[in-house]
Design a protein that fits this description.
This is Arsenate reductase. The chain has about 150 residues and is an alpha/beta fold. It has four helices and four strands, in the order E-H-E-H-E-H-E-H. The protein has one domain: 3-Layer(aba) Sandwich (Rossmann fold), CATH 3.40.50.2300. Helix 1 packs across helix 4 and helix 2 packs across helix 4.
Length: about 150
């Protein structure tokens, strides 16, 4: 079973959407995965994140914002994916066996629901590439560069 952590600052938006997407995509592609999300701080799951995910059939209503040390066995992950720059900088050092990836997505907080949906869609594309690579025993994408053609209003 592959253990995956999505890490962000507040565990309220991108990391929550990433957790929901990764669970959904792992199931879709037959990947045995245990997925968690956490923040360097805990706050609450934002309504924009819940709505964006509900629109594609993924329910975040039972999700709560968590810090790393709220998770079971927080030092034993196969992959740690940071989804914001501040979390990448604050991410603790993991054992050498843990693969750290940085997929920085724009923070949709404070924006329209269209902005939330755009970030969700960008995350879905990147995380599906990640899951497909894992499910086929290929190298996972090492980085993510936001497409300059996607405007976030």
């Amino acid at each position: 079973m592959t253990r995956i952590l999505i890490l962000c600052t507040h565990n309220s938006a991108r990391s929550q959407m990433g957790e929901g997407l990764l669970r959904h995509l792992a199931q879709k592609h037959g990947l045995q995965a245990e997925v968690h999300s956490a923040g360097t701080e805990a706050t609450f799951v934002k309504e924009g994140a819940k709505q964006a995910m509900q629109d594609i059939g993924i329910d975040l209503s039972s999700h709560t914002s968590k810090k790393l040390f709220d998770l079971p066995d927080p030092w034993n992950f196969d992959y740690v994916i940071t989804v914001c720059d501040s979390a990448a900088e604050a991410c603790p050092v993991y054992p050498a066996s843990t693969i750290r990836l940085h997929y920085p997505f724009t923070d949709p907080s404070g924006g329209s629901q269209d902005r939330w949906n755009t970030v969700r869609d960008q995350m879905k594309v990147q995380l599906e590439k990640f899951v497909v690579a894992l499910s086929k025993n290929l190298d996972v994408p090492e980085s993510y560069e936001q497409s300059p053609t996607v405007a976030l209003s």
